[in-house]
Amino acid sequence: MIREPCVTGIFYPSKKSILKENIEKTLDNINTEDTITGQITAGVAPHAGYVYSGKTACYTYNQIRKNRIPETFIIIGPNHTGYGNSSIALTTASKWNTPLGDITVDTELNNELQQRNPNIKYDDRAHLKEHGTEVELPFIQYITEQEDKNAMIVPIVISNQTLELSQQLARTIYESTEKLGRDIIIIASTDLTHYENSENARTKDEKVMKSIENMDEQELYNNVTNYQITMCGYGPTITAITYSKLANAKNARILDYSNSGDAFGDYDSVVGYTSAIITK
After folding, report:
1. What are phi and psi of 269, to 5 degrees?
2. What is the pLDDT of residues 223-273, one digit of tens each?
3. By CB neighbour count within 10 A (0-12 exposed, 13-18 middle, 19+ buried), where does 260 fall?
């Protein structure tokens, strides 16, 4: 089965040439000589429409393409739709499609994850109309093609973003990839504060970004809870941090911060975006 795109022409261009040119130009504009040292274990990238958050997302993918293309990208996002009935959902599709073509799902790793953790289930309804994982795919496809590599994906949707389940998922990923000898990079797909003015959003989002830099998943969870930060993918971000620490990562770095107001100048009600990389 092939999972067809659900937000093409809405979140990103539906025409291959335009989509490719969009990513290429954005990557070229933000490409600097600044290169992350160490092996990347995880990245954080936003998942709004490309006109809003594409530039910030490209900061993450620019560093990944300069670091390495792994065997598998594990893309973890929140459940925006409410579809499905699983805390952590895998896809049964063998490929996912975008205007840039098909990308293969790492079914072996999927099966290993599912067998190790009773909270992880195959649940295609959770992926049916979910944009959070899908919008990351064209970036991955573009940098993979540019580096003349092949990479697989494991899309994961988290509905129940508790600290415990997010950390448990990280341990399952670590144990599964160690068993299979799989080289992976986790992409935590998330936007930050939603629908507050730019100043308030930045104040809250700085707490999130500091927690990421500190590689402190407990602090991140506490900040989101205590300050009522409407970060949609805090669970995936907790998973990325926890996995990275298990993989002996020592450094996290914020690469960019922006908000939706930067696109058209309306700063009264914005959504925040950040790009980050974790390395060992």
Report:
1. -145, 105
2. 999 999 999 999 999 999 999 999 999 999 999 999 999 999 999 999 999
3. buried
Question: pLDDT tens digits, residue range 124-138?
Answer: 999 999 999 999 999
2-279 is classed CATH 3.40.830.10: yes
Q: How far is CA 121 from the centre of its chain?
A: 20
| DSSP letters for 5-53 | PSSBTTTB-SSHHHHHHHHHHHHHHH--S----S-EEEEEE--S-HHHH
Query: The pTM is what?
Result: 0.97
3-state secondary structure of 141: helix
Where along the chain do its domains lie? 2-279
Position 255 scores a pLDDT of 97
From CA 215, how far away is CA 213, in angstroms rounded?
Answer: 5
What integer pLDDT is reported at residue 35 of this predicted model?
A: 80
Cβ neighbours for 112, distance < 8 A, ≥ 6 positions apart: 176, 179, 180
